[in-house]
Specification:
- Helix content is 33%, strand content 23%.
- It is an alpha+beta fold and 138 residues long.
- It has a single domain, classed as Alpha-Beta Plaits (2-Layer Sandwich), CATH 3.30.70.
- A five-stranded antiparallel beta sheet has the order 2-3-1-5-4, sandwiched between helices.
């Protein structure tokens, strides 16, 4: 079986990553948060608009301790997705506020800027400073 060829990066649809913080009084399960986001997107944009926005919520895109998440969308619909997030004011019976921290063009940039993650593979330890020889000081 022949695999289909991948599109080159110049032909792929550009995407953006929206980092958001959930402000709530009580902890809320991740499944309920994602359901609230999807229902708000469907109510605000409709099915065609959600398909055009190409929104994606990944499992590893949520930090439970910091209550910060990242979602992916098409670059043309960033403002519509931000508006749909702002329209969410309750999840269940808990009042919530979605605060958009920022927008990035890459997932690694969004994680680095907004989640505070550091890629240790690119980290190189500082070189030790050379100490002047004591013979030169005397």
């Amino acid at each position: 079986m022949v695999k289909p060829k991948m599109l080159s990066p110049s032909l792929r649809e550009p995407k953006r990553y929206i980092a958001y913080k959930l402000i709530s009084e009580k902890p809320i399960p991740v499944a309920d948060i994602y359901n609230a986001i999807w229902s708000s997107l469907l109510n605000f944009l409709g099915e065609v608009g959600v398909a055009r926005a190409n929104v994606s919520l990944g499992k590893d895109m949520w930090n439970e301790e910091k209550k910060i998440g990242i979602l992916k969308c098409a670059h043309t619909d960033v403002e519509n997705v931000r508006t749909a997030l702002a329209l969410i004011n309750r999840i269940g019976d808990v009042p919530v506020v979605f605060h958009v921290l920022g927008i990035s063009g890459t997932i690694s940039g969004a994680r680095r800027k907004f989640l505070g993650e550091v890629n240790l593979a690119k980290f190189s330890p500082p070189k030790p400073e050379e100490k002047p020889e004591q013979a030169q000081q005397q």
